[in-house]
What does this fold into?
Amino acid sequence: MAVPHSEFASRVVWARTSDAEADDLSLLDAVERERRARYLREDDKRRFTLGVILTKRELSARTGRPPAEISLDRTCPGCGAQHGRPLFPGWHLSVSHSGGLVGLAVADVPVGLDVEERGRSLDEIADSVLAGEPPGDLHVYWTRKEALLKATGDGLRVPMTAVRVSAASAPAALLAWRGRADLPARTVLRDLDPAPGYAGALAFIRP
Ligand SMILES: CC(C)(COP(=O)(O)OP(=O)(O)OC[C@H]1O[C@@H](n2cnc3c(N)ncnc32)[C@H](O)[C@@H]1OP(=O)(O)O)[C@@H](O)C(=O)NCCC(=O)NCCS
It folds into this structure.
């Protein structure tokens, strides 16, 4: 599954953990193999592996270099360990996994992708998600806000309650970001429909 977007030279690519290549380690470098080995659950290993494969294939297509020669920097701005978002010169990337689905977004501006399986109710944590938005599909609110937080690189270090978006039933838009008045005008937010049983969102931030 691949969804090209006309905006920001972007594309979103999906894979499923049931794909046989989720066990193919041939594109993983030593650091990535070590990270994969540290996951205790087989599902986590498969999700991580597919994220690497999708990322290296997409960058190979965009650079003309073989996927095995694509090397990703994942330096975490918080602690320096290799578990942050993948960085590659010239392109912005965002990886997301949930349940049996793994997605990659690539663009020429900072991008954030989030996918969530609709398996569990989020009602109990509504207070930590909403920032005054009307009641609505919490998976939509969750994925919109996580996509935005991943696009800026903050992740959940910034609470979702610092970010206000449009009503879940309305077209996706960032309305306010506490302490960052510039962001709503620079941000493009889209709801995605990645697969039955999943919610998803994609955020771009213009320079
Ligand atoms: C980013 C974050 C919201 C993702 O949550 P999640 O439930 O794992 O959700 P997803 O599956 O959608 O995303 C995972 C991907 O996000 C990416 N990611 C990690 N940190 C990120 C960040 N700060 N910004 C954007 N993307 C990030 C990674 O590519 C990761 O996939 P990978 O490890 O397989 O490469 C969460 O991990 C987070 O808040 N991290 C930052 C917290 C932090 O920096 N703590 C200090 C650590 S020392």
Q: What stands out?
A: Helices lie at 30-38, 42-63, 126-129, 138-152, 183-186. The mean pLDDT is 95. Residues 48, 51, 76, 78-79, 83-86, 94-97, 114, 146, 149-150, 153, 155-157 surround coenzyme A (CB under 6 Å). The beta strands are 2-4, 11-16, 92-98, 101-107, 111-117, 163-165, 174-177, 187-192, 198-205.
